[in-house]
Design goal:
The protein has 392 residues and is an alpha+beta fold. The protein has two domains: 153 residues, Beta-Lactamase, CATH 3.30.450; 146 residues, 2-Layer Sandwich (Heat Shock Protein 90), CATH 3.30.565. 42% of the residues lie in helices and 19% in strands. The chain contains nine helices and twelve strands. Strands 2-1-5-4-3 form a five-stranded antiparallel sheet. The protein is elongated and about 100 Å long. It starts with 29 loop residues before the first helix and ends with a strand.
């Protein structure tokens, strides 16, 4: 088996913290992260070979990202047991390690395991994902010298960083799969929605032509205009996932929130609720209609679960390159089970809800290169948060 070796030359600093990673979820490139980790370990630790193995969700296969010093590995060809049996005479230590014949037992996650494959070489492995044989994801270092405690800590720190990236990588892939299912469902229902709308439009026009001038004719005209608006919004909804259709311009979040609140006003009066938001404007580059759908869904959700006479708080905080928006209610909060599925299409906590509102909101935020998540507040109630780039 020929060693799958990849020489790395990119001089890109490795992220030292995952504090701001949720907002960058759309940009995660696991292969690039693995390359950076391999390059950093190679530069800081005297190694014979370094590689990472992770599960590529696009191909469905485990992928190797490696770097090795072939001249240092050459002596491995003289080791007798590596030149016999299934190895053949042309294979060496790299091939033996990649065959994973040494992987006989389950690896503990985020713990360094040391073993010797020959008298000359030590191997250190730290599992970062599935620990089962044949599916394990890990970082491996092969060295001619034993690693010091400091060097082992460096290996463990990089393993922890890669583990967090892999968790986000898999969560994002799961969300994208669910959103694709939602898009397909919307496409299937398009025909069922358009036919009744077209029929209402036709009958409204017939009534307008038959009625004398006055209030009734104006109402028929209003029905037809409303149907036209619904058809336009249906078209936008079906194609909102295509970034080329986003109408990106600078907009004030205050204006968008105020429009959403206006639509909720009858409900707010009924429950005697208030929605508070900052009096300081903040401008972001967004598709205003789609961003209004996000606020419509999140604010309506907060109003539904808020007790009568309460307050829904909408706040935003501006950082260097992005804005963080938080919408908080004082309801009963979200159960642990609901937190796991709350953005899943057709999953709803509201009686009579379609289960599409939060899934659509998440897709819109992802298309705007942001991220949306939910939490429970320590003082009670739920909080939905999302990030948006200030400029694109």
């Amino acid at each position: 088996m020929k060693a799958a070796t990849q020489n790395l030359t990119a001089q890109i600093p490795l992220p030292s913290s995952t504090r701001n990673l949720p907002s960058k979820l759309a940009e995660v490139d696991v292969n690039k992260i693995c390359q950076l980790i391999v390059q950093q370990l190679t530069a800081l630790i005297p190694t014979v070979a370094v590689w990472t193995v992770y599960h590529n969700l696009d191909t469905g296969k485990r992928q190797l990202v490696a770097e090795s010093m072939q001249e240092q590995m050459a002596c491995a060809q003289t080791i007798p047991y590596l030149k016999t049996g299934y190895f053949g005479s042309g294979h060496h230590l790299n091939s033996y390690l990649q065959q994973e014949k040494w992987l006989l037992e389950d690896l503990p996650v985020l713990e360094i395991v040391e073993f010797k494959v020959t008298q000359e070489y030590c191997v250190y492995v730290c599992c970062v994902g599935d620990e089962n044989v044949g599916t394990a994801e890990y970082i491996l270092i092969c060295t001619a010298e034993m690693l010091s405690p400091e060097q082992q800590q460096l290996l463990l720190s990089n393993a922890q960083l890669l583990s967090q990236y892999l968790i986000m990588y898999k969560e994002r892939s799961h969300h994208i799969t669910e959103i694709a299912s939602l898009s397909q469902a919307l496409g299937r229902t398009e025909h069922q929605l358009r036919n009744p709308l077209a029929l209402i439009n036709l009958y409204a026009e017939n009534l307008r032509l038959a009625l004398p001038s006055g209030c009734l004719q104006e109402q028929a005209t209003l029905i037809r205009q409303t149907v036209d608006e619904l058809c336009a919004k249906l078209t936008d909804l079906l194609y909102y996932g295509q970034r080329t259709r986003l109408q990106m311009k600078q907009h004030n979040l205050q204006t968008i929130v105020a429009e959403s609140i206006k639509g909720l006003q009858p409900w707010l009066e009924q429950k005697k609720l208030q929605i508070r938001y900052p009096d300081k404007p903040v401008h972001v580059t967004v598709d205003s209609w789609q961003m209004k759908q996000v606020f419509d869904n999140l604010l309506a959700n907060a109003v539904h679960f808020s007790p009568d006479g309460g307050t829904v708080n909408c706040n935003w905080y501006v950082y260097n390159r992005e804005v963080l928006v938080e919408i908080c209610d004082r309801g009963s909060g979200i159960s642990p089970e609901d937190l796991k599925q709350i953005f899943k299409p057709y999953y709803s906590r509201r009686v009579g809800g379609t289960g599409l509102g939060l899934a659509i909101a998440q897709k819109i935020i992802l298309d705007h290169q942001g991220n949306l998540w939910a939490d429970n507040l320590p003082e009670g109630g739920a909080q939905f948060s999302f990030t948006l780039p200030i400029k694109r």
